[in-house]
From TrEMBL:
Positions of the Fibronectin type-III domain: 75-169
Species annotation: Saccharata proteae CBS 121410
GO biological process entries: conjugation with cellular fusion; Golgi to plasma membrane transport
One Gene Ontology CC term in the entry: trans-Golgi network
Annotated Gene3D superfamilies: 6.20.120.50, BRCT domain, Immunoglobulins
Record-annotated membrane-spanning stretches: none
Region entry Disordered, spans: 261-303
Record protein name field: BRCT domain-containing protein
Length: 303
């Protein structure tokens, strides 16, 4: 279609064109011939470009398909939480690497018994955490909440019960410098009580066992506040059939303060009670006085 327009005014960027019915049309002056001035008549041909329309439509559909295949086919996955180890007062939890798909990470939080216990630092790098200060022989329920730009995803609830004082399977020891024979004996003791032995200090290490405080693993244990004890501590747990205190078994502790033998504290109490009973019996039944022999001199006979 051909349209004839009269140039009314030409500015630096816009030209005002007049139609036959005296309507004003603003038109880019850069598209007009260079010798145009007011009063000039220009012919503009207007036609629909079907080829360009089809090309633009095909390009838009391709862009939509690309966006869908990149961002629409996969969504973030819910975290998978599990228990690595449990002791009398602590729990070590671990999970698979978080799958964000194409979403952006907002936060990863740990909940205990329905209440937020804290946020996981560096969630794209960390895959485990340790919760301490728990009650003995108590059940707790944990779950993770992953917040992303694509929504919020929660893991399944995980019920974990802390161990009783007589449960020794939660002990996880890392052996340090010690004689070979003592290390072999330690391995056998750990196997008998059901404890786990690992070569390096990790988040689930409960005790570092050694006779000398040296080496990179010892330094790591000290840095992570892992108790450093002598092998007698493991043997003491086996004798007592329960978790014993570590204070007397530190490598720099006085060996005379350690309890030796099965149920040493109970034996001491029994001995003390027997001694007290013996003293009470002596007080109730005082010893009888020994017989005395008196010699009476003969009296003179009366005349």
């Amino acid at each position: 279609m051909l349209v004839s327009l009269t140039v009314g005014k030409v500015d630096a960027g816009v030209a005002v064109l007049l139609t036959e019915d005296k309507r004003l049309i603003e038109f880019p002056s850069i598209l007009l011939p260079p010798d145009i001035s007011s009063g000039s008549i220009v012919d503009i041909t207007v036609a629909r470009n079907h080829a360009s329309e089809n090309a633009a439509a095909n390009a838009f559909k391709a862009l939509q398909s690309q966006i869908y295949s990149t961002f629409g086919t996969r969504s973030p996955s819910a975290p998978v939480l599990r228990c690595r180890n449990a002791t009398q007062t602590s729990v070590v939890l671990e999970w698979d690497p978080i799958d964000l798909a194409t979403a952006s990470l907002r936060s990863l939080s740990l909940y205990r018994n329905g209440s937020k216990a804290g946020s996981i630092p560096r969630p794209t790098e960390m895959q485990s955490t340790k919760i301490s200060g728990l009650a003995v022989d108590t059940e707790y329920v944990f779950h993770l909440v992953l917040r992303t730009s694509a929504g919020t995803y929660s893991s399944e609830r995980l019920a974990v019960r802390t161990h009783k004082m007589t449960e020794l399977s939660g002990i996880t020891i890392t052996p340090g410098p010690m004689p070979a024979a003592l290390k072999e004996s330690l391995m056998q003791t750990a196997q008998r009580i059901g404890a786990k032995v690992i070569d390096t200090v990790r988040i689930d290490t409960t005790h570092f066992v050694c006779t000398e405080g040296r080496g990179p693993q010892w330094e790591k244990a000290v840095e992570m506040n892992v108790p450093v004890v002598v092998p007698d501590w493991v043997k003491g747990c086996e004798r007592e059939g329960r978790i014993v205190g570590v204070r007397q078994y530190y490598i720099n502790a006085d060996p005379r303060l350690r309890q030796v033998g099965p149920n040493a504290q109970q034996q001491q109490q029994q001995q003390l009670q027997a001694h007290q009973q013996q003293q009470q019996q002596q007080q109730q039944n005082p010893p009888m006085a020994s017989p005395r022999t008196e010699v009476t001199p003969p009296t003179p006979e009366q005349i």
